[in-house]
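Need BTB/POZ domain-containing protein's 3D structure for a figure. Predict it.
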Amino acid sequence: MASEKPSSKGQAWFCTTGLPSDIEIEVDDMTFHLHKFPLMSKSRKLHRLITEQETRSFSTVNPQTSMVLTVEESNSKRKGHNEQEEEKEQEIEEEEEEEENGYPRIRLKDFPGSSESFEMVAKFCYGVKFDLSAFTTVPLRCAAEHLEMTEEYSPDNLISKTERFLSHSVYKSLRESIKALKTCESVSPLAGSLGITEQCIASIVSRASSADPSLFGWPVNDGGGGKGATDTSATDLPVIPGGVSKTADVRRKKQSRDSNMELWFEDLAQLSLPIFITVIVSMRSGDLSSDVIESCLICYAKKHIPGILRSTRKPPPSSSTAASENEQRDLLETITSHLPLEKSSISATTRFLFGLLRTAIILNASDTCRDTLERKIGSQLERATLDDLLVPSYSYLNETLYDVDLVERILGHFLDTLEQSSTAIVEADGRSPSLMLVGKLIDGFLAEIASDANLKSEKFYNLAISLPDQARLYDDGLYRAVDVYLKAHPWVSEAEREKICGVMDCQKLTLEACTHAAQNERLPLRAVVQVLFFEQLQLRHAIAGTLLAAQSPSPSQSTEPRPSTTTVRRNLTITETVTEEDGDETRGEGQVDAGKWKKTVRENQVLRLDMDTMRTRVHRLERECSSMKKVIAKIDKEGSPAMTTDRPRSWSITKKFGCKFKTQVCDSQEATMVDHRSRRS
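Structure prediction for BTB/POZ domain-containing protein:
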């Protein structure tokens, strides 16, 4: 048998042994020219078919003509009259072929694994060596079951050989189990009845459950299995911990694990949707990490739904391979329904969720699907970026360029999640870091959409006040958005301007923002006066803080008495105002080194100049306000006819200055400032 050399010629397969072939076996479009006895020694079914054919050929009337026996002819008595006629016609055709060849032919229809699997079966029967892999073992195992190549019929038969390879090599490796599960799709009925599909899924869940989420969701050891395993890449080798590693070694190991994770997810994305969902359901029932499950779902969506990520959009594939819109919608809804409800610890998933949401809107997915994605995004909104929030308005009902209602709904889900969360991290000042990140994100979104001419003032106002006061440490970002909106909408009324400016808290503007706002002609006069008042107040505190810091003793003077607690607290508060930088508060220590004296004097001089400039601007506004009051009082003292005649003149004066004057509106000494905002607390 060692001298046998099988070869393939076109659609025929020959086994050259020096002896002529005495049987033909047809599988799909391939004809195998073989010998009876090697096949009959290993396969009970082939032995039975060949024996029945020989018996029938000797019992015929004409002994020179051989009857052809097919797999279906063994059950011909159970079939109807029409099927028997078709088989007889087929027998006549095959009899003619048999007369030409001189030996019988057996046709195996619906053979599991097609002709490639039967070729491996023939090699096994002839004793020819061949390699097993995760891609070939499952079809070969099903073919051996179909041909009844059991251990009872012949020792060390094909069924036991393939079972050993599955147990020792395939089921012990995560990636090999996924590859084997992929091949189960072509022989799904038989593979399911043999339990191969179930064992592959159990192996995947078991191996994936050992993953450490801190190590990119990949198991530390994913070896290729037992001895003799084939088709195993180098990335499946185990990672052996070596104590304290160097930085380069740690980075190299992390990159290797990250690469392994991507390979695993890519392999899993090759599965068909029914088998993939079966794996996901098994993962969820096996208490697998929600991060791993979510990553699997997102990777599968990226593979089969085009255009999820803006940076990876490609031209659509050919019509023969592209999925229809209905298929993509069904796939998206199925994946969304299996997303874990828990908040993911992987920050990159937020961008994928926004991509799924945009695709769901384009494909007109169900309301349940979109609501699930919005709630999922809302639970981790602090990880989003401004580019994520800029979702275009795909509906003709929305006049704005971007979908503002969508962002408002997502923000509502975030606030609801924050209120229900009992483990929210809160800093010492009572602020939540996630809430402050979302506040900065919303301010950026407001500044981006403020230039839209179709954006209504009511919608801008509602989104601006939807966040509580604790979300913003400073209102500089909100002031920028208000300024952009007023510049892009010069036609809004004075009442709307005052309402829009009411979303700002002038006390939370920095000195730079106050200086800009004081010179901003687009702001209403009431807002400018408030800004000037608080700017002057901040400058006074800053100058006082500088003077107190300059008068404080140096650290070398340790014998002097320590200041009181009240004085220290006041100095700390004032110094914080001076040393604010990039929105971060720094606590003053109340003492400076002697070497910083010159720098402090220069800062004091600059602050005094700024104070003088501000005082001059305030006095100028007071004089203008006083002169306008005198003009109005003079008009009021005139008689009623004169008042009727001069009313247009009064109106022109009011229109010229762009405001309606009331008592003490422009009084810089007014002690009470009215807050017109209604914020969510």
